Amino acid sequence: MATTCDSSYDRISELKAFDDTKAGVKGLVDAEITKVPRIFHHLRDDSDNTSLVAAEGKFRIPMIDLEDVHKGPPQRKEIVDRVRNASETWGFFEVVNHGIPVDVLEEMKDGVRRFHEQDVELKKEYFSRDYTRKVGYNSNFDLFSSPSANWRDTFSCVMAPISPRPEELPAAFRDILIEYTKEVMKLGNLLFELLSEALGLNPNHLKDIDCSKGLTILGHYYPACPQPELTLGTTKHSDNDFLTVLLQDHIGGLQVMHQNHWVDVPPTPGALLINIGDLLQASHRTL
């Protein structure tokens, strides 16, 4: 989509006015706007020659069952081989039977929704653009530097290696944040073991160099948009971490790049999407 040049348009002022509300995109929806503000309009990328492929078409993201990972060397080797192949060819894979109870996953999703849909005055207590803070919320971490804003609000919390005190966490989902952290750290340690073995290394290698030491939880919220054709919830990007464990809700819309195609990743109940991050790729090249 193209926009015309308008010398009277003051983008910085519009960005600041939006940010000053501390209400995020949810605040715009609550105000019952009918037109998406210009700061959220996305320009068409004419250099993007990728094409969209439906999930049921040519490509489907690898699904790896972890149920037998501790049952013996043959079963573990098969899983390691699948992790290696998926990581090399896709950089993404889904895992099922990963050990995190479904009710924990569902409560985590519900908790994120509770936080974003609570009274705005309660959310404002956590609003910040100081990224040295362990706990915070805002809309678009790169609001003032990106060409266009995403239709998305985000809660963020650094839970490891040193977690916040419980009273520093939002009451809306304090308990589940703590429980989910314990569960996802266990899964992360297992994944780093499997990735180490896939690289032909000692199972503890990636953990020993602190790849699994930290954990930041991001809770994204994408409210209904009155003009979805003008904006995006998340623009194309790579993750600048070692590993991302992504918990999808039932809405869908997630896509990953594979062989110059955008491939749909439909939500699978109980599954988690694993993304090999930039730092792990860089570490791999130096091993």
TrEMBL record:
Its cofactor is Fe cation. It comes from the Eukaryota. Keywords: Iron, Metal-binding, Oxidoreductase. Transmembrane segments: none annotated. Residues 213-287 form the Fe2OG dioxygenase domain. GO terms for molecular function: dioxygenase activity; metal ion binding. The keyword Oxidoreductase applies. PROSITE patterns: FE2OG_OXY. PANTHER family: 1-AMINOCYCLOPROPANE-1-CARBOXYLATE OXIDASE HOMOLOG 1, OXIDOREDUCTASE, 2OG-FE II OXYGENASE FAMILY PROTEIN. Belongs to the iron/ascorbate-dependent oxidoreductase family. This is Fe2OG dioxygenase domain-containing protein. It comes from Populus tomentosa (Chinese white poplar). The lineage of its organism: Eukaryota, Viridiplantae, Streptophyta, Embryophyta, Tracheophyta.
